[in-house]
Backbone:
């Protein structure tokens, strides 16, 4: 079992408000205060929120009108390469899923989602994000110390 320490900010994006609310409820119930959960049903608003920064984990539907999950994935990664991105996949093409993986998706979940799997993948994404942040911090500190010598 993964132990969460420190908090991460998760953005859940799904144009189906029922699915979005269900995911938020499951995540909050299981992970409590370790994950700060934000949720948006409008992918355009989600892109604006990603541009503001501060999102550590993105859980997004792959297929939405006008802006799809791959667009949000690209936006999240442009803002912060350490952002962990989980893709929700319903009835999509093999090529669309491969494309999401190629642009940096961390993992995926098949709809209908298994609650235990959602919680496990969010916990893993939290741990992975924290490790990347620690590694980047250590290497930056090391390079700064080296430059001061």
Residues:
């Amino acid at each position: 079992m993964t132990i969460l320490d420190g908090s991460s900010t998760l953005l859940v994006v799904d144009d189906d408000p029922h699915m979005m609310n269900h995911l938020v409820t499951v995540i909050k119930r299981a992970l409590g205060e370790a994950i700060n959960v934000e949720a948006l049903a409008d992918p355009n608003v989600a892109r604006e929120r990603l541009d503001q920064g501060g999102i550590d984990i993105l859980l997004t539907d792959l297929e939405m009108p006008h802006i799809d999950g791959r667009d949000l994935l690209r936006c999240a990664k442009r803002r912060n390469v350490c952002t962990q991105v989980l893709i929700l996949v319903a009835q999509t093409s093999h090529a669309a899923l491969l494309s999401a993986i190629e642009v940096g998706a961390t993992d995926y979940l098949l709809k209908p989602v298994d609650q235990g799997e959602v919680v496990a993948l969010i916990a893993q994404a939290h741990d992975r994000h924290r490790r990347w942040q620690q590694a980047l911090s250590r290497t930056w500190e090391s390079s700064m110390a080296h430059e001061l010598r």
Summary: The first helix runs from residue 17 to 31. Strands lie at 8-13, 35-40, 57-61, 84-89, 107-110. The chain has a mean pLDDT of 88. The chain is about 55% helix and 20% strand.
